[in-house]
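User: I'm putting together notes for a lab meeting next week and I want to include a structural view of one of the chains we've been expressing. I don't have a solved structure, so I'd like a prediction I can at least talk through. The sequence is below, exactly as it appears in our construct file.
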Amino acid sequence: MTDAPLLELSGPPHARGLTHGHALAGRLRGFLGDSLARLGHLTDRAVDLDALRPGIAAHRTVIADVLPDLATEIDGLAAGAGIDRDAAWLLQLRRELIGYSRVTAGDCTTYASAGAAPVLAQTVDLNGNLDDQIAVLSVSGPRHRSLVLSFAGLLGYLGVNDAGIAVGINLVLGGDWQPGVPPYLAIRHVLDTADTVEQAVETLREMPLASSRAFTICGVDRAVCVEATGARRRVLEGDELVHTNHFLDAGLAEQDEINIFAKNSSRRRLQTVLDAGIPKADDTEGHHRLLATPPILVPDNGDIRRERTVAAVILRPDLGEMRLWPGDPSAVPEQVHSLHRAGP
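Assistant: Thanks for the context. Below is the predicted structure for the 344-residue chain, given as structure tokens.
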């Protein structure tokens, strides 16, 4: 069974990082010792922290300028875990530093429905066998409290805050990847600060992102998807939204870099959700059945380089709730976390 601890992070930024790092110190040191956060398993070239330091520093310069609190929190994570400062930053930048592969087996299926009972749900498809690195962060940020799904020391990945904002994420491939804010930290900042869906969208419009992603944002009144490359943003809106791993905006689709086979997988997963329909917010069994069944579920084929489903979540913006299956959602029990009560 996957160990997905709940970490309570509060206080000033450095203190939040210290708590996070101390709680997961052994796990994070072991992860970094496994071919440098498993990056060596995912690429044909040698991976060395010293060689990556200039790239880490370039990203850190932008992040420290735009998100100084989160930069301080990362430094606190390093101190708490007893790891090299650049290693703590590496944990935030693994995808950006290794670059993107156009051949993916999957990389998340996300859907959202706005209204009186809003819901956002998704699978998390990652390579690197990261289901042993899952944690849930209960964060008391500078403005809002949030529940954040984390992998291997990440300060953010996806989550829901007490203002009724849920944010999910999908990989899309396009534009130039360059030093900037990794999308996971952008999501954490949105959860820390956004009061409304509109504010979340504006934050993502202005953020100097390091890499391309699609961000699905769901609140009690609106659901939107912000498709982003380094320089361009397009906003899709509807009562119900579904996103996988190809650009849906016609303009951005022209620069989509996804491999045709991966794009076929992406289209198939998108159509599966559209055909099934989004379950009602309180239909946990219906959501779980959809998320835990191929092709939405991407099974493990034994290749650490291939993406597979390592978690699934249902987020309820109106309830401040995260339902989590940490690992293969067809094989692991559900955890329920709430901003209004302690513990799973």
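A couple of points you could mention at the meeting. The chain has a mean pLDDT of 95. The domain at 110-338 is CATH 3.60.60.10 (Penicillin V Acylase; Chain A).

User: Perfect, that's what I needed.
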